[in-house]
Design a protein that fits this description.
The protein is α/β, with parallel strands linked by helices. The chain is built from seven helices and six strands. It has a four-stranded mixed beta sheet. The longest helix is centred in the N-terminal third of the chain and has 23 residues, at about 1-25.
Amino acid sequence: MKALERDEERAERRLVHRAFERLTGRDGTPLQYALMEDTPVGVLGLAAGPAGLRRLEYIRGEDDFLLRLLEEFPDRPLERSAALDAVRRELDRYFAGSRFTFETRVDLSDVTPFQQRVLRETAKVPAGKVTTYTDVATRAGRPHAARAAGNALHDNPIAIIVPCHRVLRGDGSLGGYAGGLPAKEWLLKHEGAILL
């Protein structure tokens, strides 16, 4: 019975996607999204396309998240999807403290080449360690662009998995964080980078 229900759901999705393509003239492949409402750092919104995870954001709620996705991706239908369950499981393990690395593919095609370099260098910082905005800028090929690196990290579309929380000011202070400083502090304590 469940297999029949899944087949019917797939057929319904295909019809919706084809209708979207005919009506808009655009690709009907949906941007899949899901929410994580029970994390220690607040509500998270996830969105993914065929090339990987495109958003992992701190959100106020589903309506707010959907409005932002519609503004950023006006050419894509949105679909709440269980396809993101694997990402949710990885994040659950992270929050439980059993694993601090991720295998999720990310899609950074929405940001500039410099931002991509900054985010890729940031992704190399291991859990339990921190670095500085200047160091990330240097490793991204622009040693005098610490402020630009900070801006790229503030606009990081894939929080936690691309661990911008591990980047501090040169004086060792936390700096900023799109999820708020309490979330940044919690993440760093959770990973053992700063003392409790």
